[in-house]
Design goal:
Elements lengths: L2 H26 L3 H5 L9 H20 L31 H21 L12 H23 L21 E4 L2 E5 L15 E5 L2 E4 L5 H9 L11 H10 L7 E4 L2 E6 L2 E4 L11 H10 L7 H9 L54 E8 L19 E8 L15 E4 L8 E2 L3 E3 L1
Parallel strand pairs: 8-11
Antiparallel strand pairs: 1-4, 2-3, 4-12, 5-6, 6-7, 8-9, 9-10
The structure holds fe (ii) ion.
Cofactor: Fe(2+)
Enzyme class: oxidoreductase
Pfam families: DinB_2, FGE-sulfatase
């Protein structure tokens, strides 16, 4: 066994352990009632997410990579995300919290044994531990989803975290991204998912993009200017949704006599005008952009602003370079339970001086979710391919609730334009 393979096994074990520690935190800070309850029709009961994480791990790592006997083939159907809509999962005969914990622990024991023995080369599924990396990201993605469920939960606060770092200085205005080609997507990132592949050249005209995401203070000006009551700023579908859903402010904002407050993980507090706005849907982001006389960036514009290095012409893994995210680069991984004020991560800026692209808030782009030229589904069609089309808008960059293993300069997230229970914000762009 080579030294490099040994290091890879250690990395996988560490990453699996970090994901499980987070899952444990999110599922042991609430009681069994809260674990089994439906906190929102948009979300699964937390206990479904827990066993689903274990079931996916069993399918891919125990059975497929390991070639081992199934642990619980009888529950596959219950935890198949394509078989049951989130709103219906509470009615299924799910494993109870005790059974779910025992199940995921049994699966994990077997997986650590598989990890000790599996070849990490030879097939694309195991090459550089891809399947393990996919499962690490899957668990972390469900952890972010569970964090959003925590935000929707009512009752005594159970999560806490220190505040994010204070800004080093104000970050305002925009940068000019010159016209020309850049490399979008990746063919080399070992744990990149199918929709991020392959690397390909994209030529863009020059554009301006904001150095920071839109803040609460800026968004409040849109509210105060009557932006929610003026159909001029909204797309037709957006205005219909604004009317039907009664949107008047970002989700979790609450109005009192003195003005707007925000409820975060069970605690109500003042709105910080210098933090990126979060919990807005694509329609709200697009309306704000129209009101501000700008637009959302396309997905390609976002990625060029984040990755393109004018000095070398190559695309970086992250805005700051190729090294994995550290706490000095970005607000990730639930280390802080809110976005940081703009300017808080000067070391995370891109070569062009664009800040906080990674972490803080997922950023809506104007783009629908489409395959890159040369796309091939892997390891299964349901990972990405079935979602391609005009129904979903792409979000980029991860949020304060995204783990560092589940975001990079090429990472693509997608959701319906009405969704805002996710940690979603945006930044603006305009033609040069
Ligand atoms: Fe899943």
């Amino acid at each position: 066994m080579t030294h490099e393979t040994e290091r890879l096994r250690e990395l996988v074990a560490t990453e699996l352990g970090r994901a499980r520690d987070r899952t444990t935190l999110l599922t042991e800070t609430v009681d069994d009632g809260d674990l089994s309850r439906q906190h929102s029709p948009l979300m699964s009961p937390l206990v479904w997410d827990l066993a689903h994480v274990g079931n996916q791990e069993e399918l891919w790592l125990v059975r497929d990579v390991g070639g081992r006997e199934p642990v619980r083939r009888d529950i596959d159907e219950l935890y198949d995300a394509f078989k049951h809509a989130r709103r219906d999962r509470v009615q299924l005969p799910l494993l109870d919290p005790r059974e779910a914990r025992r199940y995921v622990a049994t699966v994990r024991d077997k997986v650590l044994d598989v990890l000790d023995h599996a070849p990490l080369e030879g097939t694309r599924l195991v090459e550089r531990a891809f399947a393990f990396g996919m499962i690490v990201q899957h668990e972390q993605q469900h952890d972010e989803t569970m964090l959003a469920t925590h935000q929707l939960r009512t009752g005594t606060p159970v999560l806490s975290a220190p505040p994010p770092p204070a800004p080093a200085g104000r970050v305002t205005g925009e940068v000019l991204v010159p016209a020309g080609a850049f490399t979008m997507g990746t063919s080399t990132e070992p744990w990149a998912l199918d929709n991020e592949r392959p690397a390909h050249q994209v030529v863009l005209p020059a554009f301006h993009i904001d150095r920071a995401p839109v803040t609460n203070g800026e968004y409040l000006a849109f509210i105060d200017a009557g932006g929610y009551d003026d159909p001029r700023w909204w797309t037709t579908a957006g205005w219909d949704h604004r009317q039907a859903a009664g949107l008047v402010a970002p989700q979790h904002w609450v109005r009192d006599d003195a003005g707007w407050l925000v409820r975060r993980f069970g605690r109500v507090g003042p709105i910080n005008p210098d933090e990126p706005v979060v919990h807005v849907c694509w329609f709200e982001a697009a309306a704000y952009a129209a009101w501000a006389g700008k637009r959302l960036p396309t997905e390609a514009e976002w990625e060029k602003a984040a990755r393109w290095d004018p000095a070398t012409g190559r695309s970086r893994r992250y805005p700051w370079g190729d090294e994995s995210p550290g706490p000095e680069h970005a607000n990730l991984g639930q280390s802080h339970l809110r976005p940081a004020e703009t300017g808080a991560y000067p070391l995370g800026a891109s070569p062009l001086g664009v800040h906080q692209l990674i972490g803080d808030v997922w950023e809506w782009t104007s783009s629908d979710f489409h395959p890159y030229p040369g796309f091939a589904p892997f390891p299964y069609r349901e990972y990405s391919e079935v979602f391609f089309g005009p129904d979903y808008k792409v979000l980029r960059g991860g949020s304060f609730g995204t783990d560092r293993s589940a975001v990079r300069g090429t990472f693509r997230n997608w959701d319906y334009p009405i969704r805002r229970q996710i940690f979603s914000g945006f930044r603006l762009a305009r033609d040069a």
